[in-house]
TrEMBL record:
<dbReference type="InterPro" id="IPR027417">
    <property type="entry name" value="P-loop_NTPase"/>
</dbReference>
<dbReference type="InterPro" id="IPR020568">
    <property type="entry name" value="Ribosomal_Su5_D2-typ_SF"/>
</dbReference>
<keyword id="KW-0863">Zinc-finger</keyword>
<dbReference type="Pfam" id="PF18073">
    <property type="entry name" value="Zn_ribbon_LapB"/>
</dbReference>
<dbReference type="GO" id="GO:0140664">
    <property type="term" value="F:ATP-dependent DNA damage sensor activity"/>
</dbReference>
<feature type="domain" description="RecA family profile 1">
    <location>
        <begin position="66"/>
        <end position="215"/>
    </location>
</feature>
<dbReference type="InterPro" id="IPR014721">
    <property type="entry name" value="Ribsml_uS5_D2-typ_fold_subgr"/>
</dbReference>
<dbReference type="GO" id="GO:0016787">
    <property type="term" value="F:hydrolase activity"/>
</dbReference>
<dbReference type="Pfam" id="PF13541">
    <property type="entry name" value="ChlI"/>
</dbReference>
<feature type="region of interest" description="Lon-protease-like">
    <location>
        <begin position="351"/>
        <end position="454"/>
    </location>
</feature>
<dbReference type="GO" id="GO:0005524">
    <property type="term" value="F:ATP binding"/>
</dbReference>
<dbReference type="InterPro" id="IPR003593">
    <property type="entry name" value="AAA+_ATPase"/>
</dbReference>
<dbReference type="GO" id="GO:0000725">
    <property type="term" value="P:recombinational repair"/>
</dbReference>
<dbReference type="InterPro" id="IPR041166">
    <property type="entry name" value="Rubredoxin_2"/>
</dbReference>
<feature type="binding site">
    <location>
        <begin position="95"/>
        <end position="102"/>
    </location>
    <ligand>
        <name>ATP</name>
    </ligand>
</feature>
<keyword id="KW-0862">Zinc</keyword>
<protein>
    <recommendedName>
        <fullName>DNA repair protein RadA</fullName>
    </recommendedName>
</protein>
Amino acid sequence: MAKTTSFSCNACGAVHSKWSGRCDACGEWNSIVEDAGISTGPAKASLGNAKGKRVPLTNLTTEEAPPQRTMSGLAELDRVLGGGLVEASALLVGGDPGIGKSTLLLQAAAAFARKGLKTIYVSGEEASAQVRLRAERLGLSDAPVQLAAETNLRDILTTIEAERPRLVIIDSIQTMWSDSVGSAPGSVSQVRAAAHELTSFAKRAGVSIILVGHVTKDGQIAGPRVVEHMVDTVLYFEGERGHQFRILRAVKNRFGPADEIGVFEMTGGGLSEVLNPSALFLSERGTPSAGSVVFSGIEGTRPVLVELQALVAPSPHSQPRRAVVGWDGARLAMILAVLEARCGIPFTGLDVYLNVAGGMKISEPAADLAVAAALLSAREDTALPADTVVFGEISLSAALRPVGQSENRLKEAQKLGFSSAILPAGGKSGSGNGMNLTRVSDLTGFVGDIFGAG
């Protein structure tokens, strides 16, 4: 049987049937290398006459004990993990350079070690002395964490097998090198092979492993996407360099809810937990002005209030600008189109700027009505009342659709001192527990009733 050879791009992971100097997918030069398989497949297409052992089968009613979890004591981290660290699980943590991944994981390692878990921290990017200096700065020098500075995967696995720890942190997966793969560290083949070996070892030996992953300029974890499929949990550590807020977001979790978030604040002594994110995101909000609207959103199971800021100004250019920070630019274009086509409010010749205050990133459609309110407030130079929150989804017909968990959104708003809310008609929003609720059925009525425009 002829040997099948494949090639992949180190930059984007695209697979090619033959080598070439330039990747057709991303345009990078000299980035295509030959893939070396993790293991050699069977010599024949068929398994032959040799029989294997039967696999035990169970049904859906079979009762098994829930996976054993260990709480770190860091409430925000335990929340994102779904209630603590699961034994023999593999986690992948990604984030921008300098955002605080190593700081977070060193604090987590110290917290788990103090809870009784034997913990090993393996750094492939820093020397052990650098990790100790960071631990000293964070006040973690007394934590029983064992350190190692190594990139050879075979040596690391041998050490883990001999030490038998309960938790291993690998910082980072892109620095690991396997001698069974003939390519440079950080390449697609090396990352895939190292992730496969580490996750397989975690399941086989009952060790929890946390992998740190670099991200690309698009914010995705670098390397092949198959790595995210291998692990049990994928976490993203997000934040803006100019803000002290950091958000740990679960985008995949086999042992808990996805899209759960934990909020931290970067301080001189490391990352501190934020138990009330809404109050923190609104702490810098001054006197309400035109273009400022408070949106009551849901992140995972947690209601979060954030401020949306909009600015509409005459454009000196023939093509007006549409700048968005923290929200989807395509959805902003849709809201502008609905306002112009259905409500007769043009934004032609006007620059539009939209910002989510505090470095927060919003993805749920429930922010549509709050964005529209911010745009109209900025355009009409009319401020909404300071004690009002807004949420609702807008359809292309300008109808307002109810959103989920309205009761939780209203309770969070009332807890922070808001006394009125603007929300879509219908849905299970209840009475609002004494809040003044303004229900609107379509965007046209919202424009006329709230802003007197149309």
